[in-house]
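Standup notes
- DV: blocked on the single-chain target, sequence here:
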Amino acid sequence: MNFHKLISERESIRSYDINRKIPKDILEGILDAGRLAPSAGNRQPWEFLLVSSNEMLGKIRPCYKADWFQAAPHILIVKGYKNLAWTRADDGYNALETDLTIAMDHMILAAENEGIGTCWIAAFTPKVLRESLELKENEEVYAITPLGYQIEGFQKKERKKRKSFDEVVRFI
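- DV (later): unblocked, structure below
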């Protein structure tokens, strides 16, 4: 697919077919897109967790209460290590959140390219993830996404309006 078409047509999916699993090769391709993402200083301070087992899904799903999230057959969690991320010397800025955001975006676009639905979620309950994943103090999760096929015939919402090019771009 043409890249511009891909990014202009990508949308958050909020209806998942719980019974339709994603083939392993497609999941691996999506995860590999995250592996290939750039990171500050090429530190790659991340680990990608693909939750697919009923046991772990049961532990993870309470972090976000939406019904459609409960039906996703897979949940992708991008976890990072603050102590491994690049830190700017001048002010101590730690690039972990930026690095994880780039990796997540790569994987979401790779999923879209394969016809796999996603929905970027930052409004999860961190405590639930921290406890269920047994995260250490230096480990952080900034975003998660369900991965799955959209329910056949599900009516999509009206496409969100975006500001015009001239409203957001300035040549100087």
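- Follow-up: The two ends are 32 Å apart (CA to CA).
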